[in-house]
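User:
Care to share a sequence and structure tokens?

Assistant:
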Amino acid sequence: MIIFAVREVNSETARTFQQMEQSLVRQEYALDKWFNICHEDINSLANLDSIKKVDKEMMVSDFTTFLHNHKYFDNIIYVNQVGLTEIDMQHGPELYRGDQPYFQKALSGQNYISDIIQTKTDNQPKIIFSAPIYGYSGDFQGLLAGIANLSAIDALMQEFIFSQTGKTYLVNQDGLFLSGAGDVNGENSASLPLPLPRLQYKINTLAVNQALEGNTDTSVYTGYDKQPVFGAYRRLSTHNWAIVSEINAIEVLTPIYQQLLHMFLGFLLVLLLSLPLSLVMSRNIKIPIGRLIEGTRQMQKPGGMSFIAKQLASAPRELQELCDTFNQMAATISNHSQQLETTVKNRTQNLLVLNRQLQQEIFERQQAEALLRQSEEKYRMLVNNATDAIFLYEIYRNEWDDRDKITTGKFIEVNNIACERLGYAKEELMELTPADIDYKLRTGTALPAYSIINPNVNNQTIFETIHVAKDGTTIPVEVSLQFFRLNGLPVALAIARDISERKKVEQELARLDRLNLVGEMAANIGHEIRNPLTTVRGFLQLLGRRSENSANLEHYNVMIEELDRANSIITEFLSMAKNKAVQMETASLNHIIRVLHPLLQADAIVTNKQIDLELGDIPDICIDQKEIRQLILNLARNGLEAMQTSGHLTIRTFKDTGAVVLAVQDEGSGIPQEMLTKLGTPFLTTKEQGTGLGLSICYSIAHRHGATITLDTGNTGTTFFVRFKG
């Protein structure tokens, strides 16, 4: 009975704990679902046409309909872009909410879900769900906040009460009571029945403390009402709250104790009835059994078999038959014992031999497994520490295609650098195929190495392609692709090397080669062209002064202007010459900018634009002042031409990790993506009257000064950075 009692208590305890844990999981799911529903409702409301247009009359109508259909929301408010409340369905507007966390989240384009808080308006515990509002042009219009009551949470808590004295409750990160249900009118209800005052009563029990520390468990402990309880607790995964479910221990154990009492009473009744019957049976069985025991003892001695027959001659017939059976059995056992000893001896020798062989095989297998583990560990270290991304995936041959076209399966193995470069967790990347990360496979422009294979030959090829990371960024890579068979299955091993830096270097070298070529051409032919141009210009001036040519004077002037323009282009050519001499001296970059500022400001005023200076504290650097003036003028005038009227051009200087940086920032529409790789190419221009040499000259000047030019461009403007070595 004790064993049964212990087993029943353990079984009932385990069943109760399992039921409580399942209830907690369902409650957590229901709470998360309710939060998601509220969140989606507010987002849907924020995307209505009246909200985006900020049509306040329609907004009030939509808010009224929303509150009528969503009973768990008490109030809807609209806060404008400066933080003032313009619509409040329960209280007056004009309340400033710009200091609230949900407004700060909305400014950064994020939704917000508050903890359970005491609202300022009615000092009642509520939950705030907010969403930013953007107009159809993408401008920030303010935020929409829905203030939800806790009736829905209370109803959810009530749904999961599954026993007479059971209760379940929520506490926040400080242990303050939020919501709960159960054990209100029960026989063993607490001295403080649920529900307790929200955010006013702190529950300091083992379950609450363990749950707030992140532990999930079931145990028997003293509840907040000082009663022993069976409890299960856990911290919510999406909120810093703890949820606790408890049942009074008396309710769980009372049925077991009652069942044990009934069993004990039944046992006493059976015991009292069986005592007389036991005495009668003992008298009839004890004497024959005693004789049988004596006979079996004698059977162990020599001649004991005949002794049994003699001693039990007057015994009952059944007992004599039993003794004869014992005698026959003893003789049979004796014969079989000798045969068994011989067999066991032979089998033992065979087993010893087999055991030695087995031990040797086990030793050899252990050595092979150890070597295999070492080999696998070395392989994993090499793969995971490699600087190139490694992908292993299965391939499938299309038997209906004469060209042996294949399809690729999911990745079988990838290394750490592949996950880091593409921004996936390893589990996510293992669910993808090469077509998911390779831009050329996506667009159908993949090289034949990806789609043609001879399954009977190990094929290897190297080619370039583009990988697409999880966030959409592209990475140029060089792929070494090897086809082979693994465990009889055709697989492909792709080793992808990031060649982003190499591509940048190649582009930079190509641009410098173009500049050097133009510079060399300028140095070689500049003087040869200028001389005949000067002669032609002089004769045109002489011819234009003659009276008989006065009718064509305008044509002569146009020709002279075009010759002057050609001469200026040659001058710009010569400024890009690779071997052009520069006069380097230590000078102040800020001083050069201040001297040029009136000239640039005059150009800007003509087109109703503004030049702003933000000059930092920088050291003097070694430069050719004339060339730096030309570089600043070219960059500034390009920026002015790129902007509409009323635009601002900002010229900044600052220090950055030991370098002096000149930044020229405009407010234009940005540089098209297809033009970025061609910047600095001579004669490349988007202007009707431009020569396409301005940026080329800037790059040449920077190259002669050992400086670098980079840029940042977008829809709101372009910034050129010229970095001089400190």
